[in-house]
Prior knowledge:
Number of helices: 12
Oligomer: single chain
Largest sheet: 5 strands, mixed
Radius of gyration: 23 Å
Structural class: alpha/beta
Shape: globular
Low-confidence stretches: none
Number of strands: 16
Mean pLDDT: 90
Order of helices and strands: HEHHEEEEEHEEEEHEHEEEHHHHEHEH
Strand content: 15-25%
Helix content: 25-40%
Amino acid sequence: MFYQKKEKLKNKNKIFKFISSHKEFNKQSITEALDFSFPTVTKFIDEFLKLGIINEIGFIEGKSGRKSLTYRFNPNNLLSVGIKVEVDRISLILINLNGQEIKKSEIYNNFFNDVNFVNFIVTELKKFLYNFSDYKKIRGIGISLPGIVNDITKQFEIGTNFQLFSKDMKFIEDEMQLPVYLINEANAGVFAEYILSNYIHDNLAYISIDTGVGAGIIINGKLYQGSHSQAGEIGHISVIPNGKKCSCGNFGCLERYCSNTSLVESFKNEFKLESLKLYEIFSLKLHETEQGKEILNTYISYLGSAIRTFQLIFDLNKIIVGGEICYFTDEFNFKERLKAEVFNNIFCKDDTILEFSRHGDLSNLFGAALLPFKEFL
């Protein structure tokens, strides 16, 4: 029974991929392209018609001269909401079945140890969808969270940077009357990269550099989360013995040196600034000073060492670095310098493995929004 369900889902995914990549199509074109039986194709076409994600456009003459009933993909009939939660803000996005953005918003709020964390998300979500006329088309809500999550119990179990533990997210599901899907932010990032970028690589990782540092991993075409959903927590690997104290309880963790928060903190301390944003490191040309260059050299050294270790363990086809730092790669020759740090031994030689996300810091948000569409993708 399980095998049959798995095969059915696989067939559904293949047909969906075909119809979403063709403007117009008929049953015969699908059977020929995918080598499926006509009854199998008909069953899924009927399901897609019922959902309204394809429309009949009439009988059109084909290459053989015979007319056949033709369909058109309609991605706007199913929508999804994605939410990305960070320590100091939440981002919301509404997308269609093609992953195209319809609406986006960002709200700043410090969630550190906030007892009203879940209520705040619900309030902002209601504002975001207020008077939205196509609410009934929304398939669900995906939420990207920086920590350990349990999608079955709808619990945000561990968020070390938030100092939040065991937050029940089912309240959101009950309030919005929509299914809610939880995912770790790095896993959301690798999911988005895999789907939206059409990667053909079965072994892929996404390094998420945000308020923390994490890795989403796909092995043999499947998301790898480990036995306790904690795989990829590379931000809590010690890079300096007895180094800076980390919120996880350890010392010298990677994210205390390579997260956005830590990088900004280093510049603030060095230049004795009360406030500073990541982009201001570059807009104010702090990175061009001798002190700035030294901070960035250390940053690249630690990050490169961690990614090299990661590659030696998993032997991946592709590693994608994502996060706000991607917007500034040209400012300090980041890509080439990081590659030189990672690929410096006989085991790590192919530097084409490493890329920077074309989505910048939005991969996690798109990944969350795609979760309610998992049955198609």
